[in-house]
Amino acid sequence: MDSAPTSLDPVRASTLYANQLVVNLYDTLYAYKYLQRPYKLRPNLAAAMPKISPDGLTYSIPVKKGVYFADDPAFPGGKGRELTAGDFVYSLKRHFDPSTRPGGAWLWQGRIVGLDEWKQAGSDYSQEVPGLRAIDSHLVQLTLQRPYPQLVDTLALGFSGVVPREAVEYYGREFSINPVGSGPFRLVSYDSSRAVLVPQENYRREPVDLEYEGYDPVTQSRYGVALIDGRIPPFVDRLEVNFIKEGSARWSSFTKSNEIQYAGLPNEQVERVLASIDPVTLKPEYAEKYHMKTALEAGFVYSTFNMDFPEFGYNDNPERARRNHALRCAMIRGFDWESRNESWYSGIGEVFPGIIPPVVPEFDPGLARDSVTYDPEGARALLAEHGWNAESLPVLTYGTTPGPTSRLFFEQFRAWMMRIGYPKDKIILKTYATFGDIVKAWRNSELPFISKGWGLDYPDAENTLQLFYGPNASPGSNDGNYRNPEYDELYRRAGVMLPSPERTELYRRMNQMMIDDCVAITGLSRVGITLWHRNVIALPDRNFVGGRFMYYVDVLEPGAPELEALR
Amino acid sequence: MEVLQYIVRKLIAGIPLVLGVTLISFVLIVYFGPDKTYELLGKNPTAEEIAEIRSQLGYDQPFTTRYLDYLREVIRLEFGNSESTDEKVSSILARTIPTSLALAIPGFILGNLLGVMLALVAAYFRGYWIDKFIMGFAAVGMSISFLIAIIGFQILLSSSDGLDLLPVRGWDTSTPLQYIRYVTVPTLATVFVALGYNTRFYRAVIVEEMTRDHVRTARAFGVPPAQLFYRNILKNSMIPIVTRIMFSIPVIVISGSLLLESYFGIPGVGKVTYDAIVTGDQPILKAVVVLTAVLFVVAQLLADICYRIVDPRVSLK
Amino acid sequence: MSARADTVGAHGDSLWSKAFRKFRHDRVGMWSLAVVLAYAIVALGVVLGVWATDWAEVSGPKWSPASVEYWFGTNIIGQDIFARSLYSTRTAFEVGLLVALGATALGALLGAIAGFFSGTWIDELIIWVMGVLDSVPFILLVAAIAYTLQGSPWAMHIAMISTFWIGTARLIRGEVIKLKSLEYVEAAQAIGVNRLMIIFRHILPNTFHILLVQATLSFVAAIKSEVILSFLGLGVKDGMSWGLMISESTFEVLAGFFNNFLAASVLMFGLVMAFNMFSDALQDALDPRTVK
Fold first, then answer.
1. Mutate to test the interface with A, among B35, B93, B168 (most CBs of A within 10 A)
2. Domain spanning A27-172 has what CATH number?
3. How would you classify residue A56: left for phi > 0, otherwise alpha for psi between -120 and 50, otherwise beta?
4. Do B81 and A173 touch (CB under 8 A)?
């Protein structure tokens, strides 16, 4: 992994890295099927999919019986006790208790009956929340204020991992580094460079049913995953997760020894390792040793104008507002996505127009690509047509965090803008000391232009469309402060709909609106190339399955007969 | 008894220094430093949540309250938990300081030992080509940035474009062999850069001693060169040498390895400190700053005591 | 030490003329001065816009090797590394000169004040500040100052000045304590000449040879620190510098692309080495013990 998670407490599992470990240490009610694509949910800790009332407001979720937490001194006698519906209720409530510094409350805010009021009243765990109840020891009932089709998806996130109250109280603040859960693994050691996990003795024994997990022999048989069918995971005796920030170091550690068995291919090594980029193929000497898979990220990078800045965005003067629109459109046309992809993503990233990324089912491959087609002449013409020149163009402050990569992103952007006629000294770099500081500037609407990435929490475009939803404006995640009543209305309408062609239609209309308004320069979904040693039986996935693939990983002796059969 | 009194007096005299360090660092790092709030927040925060986190972190308290709290923590030597990982600051330091020492000590010892040796040779052959050669080498070492030395050695020894013998980065002390594999490149870079400065400094000190009157007199009276070297020159040079070494200790314990650790990803106290700077993890910074200041006071004290051991004529007054 | 006293008063001029003569005969010194001047011309050319005007433009392909068109190749986004190296020379001089001037001036001022008022609370206070600043680890202090002055392009300069002055101040303080016991100073004080006047008119000019050497040392230290601070993300903000080039190169060298690293480190080595030797020669020339 490329970075160390700061906390292993599910309420703080905000990062991809934390999430990967948390889902292995804790149980979630639901999970995505290991092999099926597009992603499909299945019960995990829950005994079945929820029973939903006809009005879509009440969810009844049965919890599996006989699930035990890992043994830990936090429990009386050191023996892990049985997990009950009450534990889930407790765990979700913790997101509404400010003292835990939770990161996931926004997923359920204003959704579950009585939960926000519970927080207002001081987060007293002895108080019941009407919409979040344990009916009996193994039945959870959730009541919503209005339909929330993505609810079950949120219950598959690391955020909703189930924790035992005893351990939270026993370890106090250090609970974050002393995880006690009912997941398939437990933690042996953990620091900023490595986490070591071993199988958790009390974990339920469930054989793998490949067909149920969505096994597709045509595309997946070469990875050998068929070998785990019918066996009881976890298969490995010890799981070591190394946190190595520098891609090149990760790579050399991967190729030099057998220490790291699975790693992403760093950008700067691509030319050395790949025989061809399209399609992605390994050079024979690497193909001999490693399995390779390309994976589209569940997210994308984009830049948005901050519409609250009158120089670029909304302006009370309708004439200026119209010129600002032309200015934004010109800058979008002057942005060379192809080169960005070439320089930083080895040319294998997927550039797409709008904010519905290719990873979600609502993606429209037929959408016009004008907004991502580099056209400096068109941009210059558009600027001239609306009376923009070196004199009248407004100063643009570009915020970054320190580091060579983000600096070069800026230099590249500035060079493109210079090509469409922007004077060099009108694009100003502002460096923020820490990532937290730049986020602060975004949240407080201090920057006219924001470049960032978004990782999806669940495979539904609702999760990206909310980035431009008016009520989510600063300090929410709508950093561009885009406010379009029509868009907002569609968003609200789609928000209570189950997946359907009608809903997809609404999503696409919203997408088109923000493209037409020239709000953002978007976007690119990165494609990661993952390699793993041939003796490792796995199908890694960093997206929604997250770290859960590790549960199914098996490592054979190099040269074992089963492996030879795969060649 | 006299020594004990002296030590106590010195330590008390160090208090204004420690107070000054805490005040300056508090103002700079804690009061104006990075704001942790926004790193702890979820993806879609409300204004209310922002206020909650700020109050959790104590940012809403007035300046004096926060500074007094800090002093109280200093007195109790209890800095609480890291704001990032929630781990106790004391256990973070207990884990990372030994790593930093294991990383820094080989380079530190080699750099000083080789420095003294080369300086002796250069001083002994002062003006000859061997002196010029050594001093030229020292000038080269001094002119190369530490970072360039690190990257250079890394390319040379660890990359597939070089000899490809050693790991590119990381840290492992499970076996002595592993330790040597990981510590070599950082040590070479340290020695290469430190050697230039050390050799020059030590040579200057030794030359100064060699040209003193009593040494010249002794030489004139036919005292054997070897004896002269050990008895008079080396012994008298020890005071500046010891001072220099003593004062480098706080630096290598806390910050000296910062660059090495962040470049090679070694989980030592330098990296922890740097991460704390860039994430605004104040409890760790507070502890590190106080620790360095206290170490400086102690180093000063030890240097004084060492003078006395080296040269009994120096009195502890 | 009595030789130092010769530098004062009527014999003061002879120190400088002797030093100048001595320096002229120092071959290494003259050569290193020539190299430094050559770098200075490059830097001046950048300031005047004679060359390296296109350092910010993206013109070539990714990681192109050295060629007739791109003498040092191009970087990951296709910028000309040669132009960027030249531009960085200007940055090096800017950082080096500003820090050397600032740190030396501040050190001279505070050192002289502390020395002149030695034994009083003013001296104690300045010594205390120096002790405190010395006890905070350098990088921590720089980082803290850089963060405090967030976004300011001068944060790095100020941070370096605020630590580099200490060495100069210590030397000047010692020198001033010695000088002020000299007769003419005491005489001036006795007839009621303003104290500040004494410091600036009579004492400081006599420490000029120390200041000159200290300034050259600060210049070198500033250039070297810039590299490390830029690598840590605390250095040059807008613009280009050798430190930024080297920090760019950290993810390139392991991919087998060395142009950024080589260009920056060789150019930087040349300047620092020349400056170090220049500083040595200067020190030799100005050392009254060797002025015969």
1. B168
2. 3.90.76.10
3. left
4. yes
